[in-house]
From TrEMBL:
Positions in coiled-coil regions: none
Reaction(s) catalysed (UniProt annotation): L-glutamine + H2O = L-glutamate + NH4(+)
Protein family membership: Belongs to the glutaminase family.
GO biological-process terms attached to the record: glutamate biosynthetic process; L-glutamine catabolic process
Top-rank EC class of the record's enzyme: hydrolase
Record protein name field: Glutaminase
EC number: 3.5.1.2
Residues annotated as binding substrate: 68, 117, 163, 170, 196, 248, 266
Length: 315
């Protein structure tokens, strides 16, 4: 067992959870009504180890939309479909040092990396582009279903419609990248953007997201089912970019203090990967000024204070 004494580990996680419950700092995302209406003080933590031990606490039965947490999964799908050489003709792999939706491309006219909006829109242009829209979405939803080890995976249509309606910046990013010739030949920009909004509107609960994270921790094989969804090489590349770019403008600070690959989303979701050990999902909708879940970040800090999970703790 990777965590030999799971009961005492669960007790420690429970203790961290309880210490964070009174923390009401931060605000829920308010750029669309569907996120603004979410009860702000909900909090769930779910864990799944690479050998399938599981633990959940708090509001783990509540579903939330993945938002930016779709970015690493979509990036993995582009790598599976085309290989890194082709994918990175269209997207860089350097932190941008800018906000996640900043109107900016790198020196080659490409989005900086796949973990920000521009790069995630680019990923969408590269996923099964020859299929029609319905089949492309089915492919992504099926991937989430497999990654979650059989938990239900939903789609929040109201979030999708609202994202699409308030998407001026994402449209601007799309046109800006097209102006720079960044997209693959034949890309339908409007369809690509709609596909991106659909991917952000995939819904699951913390337990399912922990399974997704554990699959990344396990090199692409779902611990709960034994299903190989991604190759090890794909996961290695994805975790590298999550480590450098996954936490918005806090990515460098997160790499320094936590030292683990992670991805956050505006819904308050945070997916944390402890390679070869476990995946952790934290969901708490109140966000800090940089857009990360307040309790999510605090949880990560307390976790590495208690356990030697920081990548350089083993030195
Ligand atoms: N749907 C959001 C957007 O594109 C997702 C961004 C996020 O989670 N940071 O703006």
């Amino acid at each position: 067992l990777v965590i030999p004494d799971f009961p005492s580990f669960m007790a420690d996680i429970t203790e961290i959870y309880e210490s964070l419950l009174p923390d009401r700092r931060g605000q829920v995302a308010d750029y669309i009504p569907q996120l603004k209406r979410v009860a702000p003080d909900q909090f769930a933590i779910a864990i799944c180890t690479v050998d399938g031990q599981r633990f959940t606490i708090g509001d783990f039965g509540q579903s939330f939309c993945v938002q930016s947490v779709c970015k690493p999964i979509n990036y993995c799908l582009t790598l599976e479909g085309h290989g890194a050489e082709v994918v990175h003709r269209h997207v860089g792999r350097e932190p941008s040092g800018l906000g996640f939706n900043e109107l900016s491309v790198n020196g080659n006219g490409l989005p900086h990396n796949p973990m920000i909006n521009s790069g995630a829109i680019m990923s969408c242009s590269l996923i099964e582009a020859s299929l029609d829209m319905a089949d492309r979405f089915d492919y992504v939803a099926d991937t989430w279903r497999r990654l979650s080890g059989g938990s239900p995976v939903g789609f929040n249509n109201a979030v999708y419609l609202s994202e699409r309606q308030t998407a001026d910046r994402n449209f601007a990013l799309g046109y800006f990248m097209r102006e720079h010739g960044a997209f693959p030949a034949g890309t339908n920009l409007i369809e690509t953007l709609e596909f991106y909004f659909q991917c952000c509107s995939v819904e699951l609960d913390a337990g399912a997201l922990a399974s997704v994270a554990s699959t990344l921790a396990n090199g692409g094989v779902v611990p709960l089912s034994g299903d190989r969804v991604f190759s090890t090489g794909t996961v290695q590349k994805c975790l590298s970019l999550m480590s450098s770019c996954g936490m918005y403008d806090y990515s460098g600070e997160f790499a320094f203090t936590i030292g683990l690959p992670a991805k956050s989303g505006v819904s308050g979701a945070l997916m944390l990967v402890v390679p070869q050990v476990m995946g952790i999902a934290i969901w708490s909708p109140r966000l800090d000024a940089l857009g990360n879940s307040v309790r999510g970040i605090e949880f990560c800090k307390q976790l590495v204070a208690k356990y030697n999970f920081h990548v350089y703790d083993s030195l």
